[in-house]
Design goal:
34% of the residues lie in helices and 19% in strands. With 231 residues, the chain is of the alpha/beta class. It has one domain: Alpha-Beta Barrel (TIM Barrel), CATH 3.20.20. The chain has an eight-stranded parallel barrel with strand order 1-2-4-5-6-7-8-9, surrounded by eight helices. It starts with a strand and ends with a helix.
Amino acid sequence: MVRVIAHRGASAAAPENTIEAFRLARELGADMVELDARRTADGQVVVHHDATLPDGRTIVELARAELPDSVPDLRDALAACEDLDVNIEIKNWPADPDFDPDEQVARDVVALVDELGMGHRVLVSCFHYPTLAVVHELAPALPTAFLHLLADRSWDDLADQVAGDGHVALHPWDGIVDQALVDAARAHGLAVNVWTVDDPERMEQLVALGVTGLCTNVPDVARALLDDLGR
């Protein structure tokens, strides 16, 4: 089975990372919602892709009450996903203004997932490998996935490290995905969820390669394609 993962919710049909987008994802056939977690100045975890708002203000410099109503708390976002699985991407990169070397966001995400009893429905991903290590240490049973953008080592070495460290999936950028990557990941028991793919022809190619998930802004397009393919 290939899973349809709604990138920032159904973000082609509704504003990304909003309650509306998360609710719509289910209606459009998604199996999972992908969303982004960041922290505010007063230590709240909210859902927003960029470190800054469209008006240029930096989220980590603002209290929760100063953010637009369209920016949801992580708790509310998870509720809006209803019975869908959720991929929480922790946004934590050293070059970002809200880089969190103490990994408090990771701790808060793990604590919230545990409080809500959602460990069986959540997958945590991050580009920053040490953040994944913290999540895995805090909650070994909580599935974790490494987001990867570069062809900077052999796929076998990458898959061996990710699987060996206890993570369950590789989330590569579509531009680096080939048969060798998929084969290496699957040989090490890893799922392969590819981002971000909106073109049906490319979706079909990825399915043929053996990927396990399509992260897309158009979940309805992906669902229709997979239904046509009997997948």
